[in-house]
Amino acid sequence: MKLWMAAAVLLSCAYATAQAPARKPCEDLKADITRKLEAKGVTSYSLEIVDKGKESPDAKVVGSCDGGTKSIVYSRAGAPAESKPADTKKE
Q: What is the reported pTM?
């Protein structure tokens, strides 16, 4: 009976360890996100690695890395301002 209990405990520990999320380095995750954005044709954006909780309100969190201690934030860069032609009146 004790042997079965010990085996059950070992198996449950092994299962829990296998199910734990991998700790992905931030630079690897940022490179993965960059590839996905470029594949979709997204331009004029920036990705930044920041400490968890230090995200700016105008940026969107798109990933978490280093065991949840850091975030990757996406922000859209403004499109270049188009110059409007001068208003000309026909007389």
A: 0.60
